[in-house]
Amino acid sequence: MIKLYLLLGGNLGNKQQVFSEARERLARQLGPITTQSAIYETEPWGFESDDMFWNQVLEISTGLSPEDVLANSQQIEQELGRIRKANQYNSRIIDIDILFYDNLITQTEKLVVPHPRIQERKFALVPLCEIAPELIHPLFLKSIKQILAECTDPLKVEKVTETLNS
Description:
Layout: E1 2-10, H1 15-29, E2 33-36, E3 40-42, E4 53-62, H2 66-79, E5 95-101, E6 106-107, E7 112-113, H3 122-131, H4 144-150, E8 157-159
Antiparallel strand pairs: 1-4, 1-5, 2-4, 3-4, 3-8, 6-7
């Protein structure tokens, strides 16, 4: 089985309900969630919004191909009400990003793994470092803990109350 790391993000709607539903659907369609980070409240990255984001990293054990993971993730986003806009950075009900698919390095028209901007984003690195600090980035050959220590992203990333994480 493949160790898959996904990032959930969203800043619209009932975030607790949407994240819970996303986790249930991901576990059903991709494979069991083996570890999950706390949920973090984060400032919008790359655009202005009054609505703070929630972010969470999931580790999933999957037998699906990267392309099938992407297709299933995008289907779940759509079913939960995600509307994709031309502008890449905007408010959204849910976003599911593939951060790592084992040690795979791939770049196609539809999919880039590892996530190409993870090193710039504390909202992804902080929850990932919580559950996999020693994970080695296959391109940078550095641990997630090292990459987070070098990250210059100044935006706020704060843990949400633990009781909301279930």
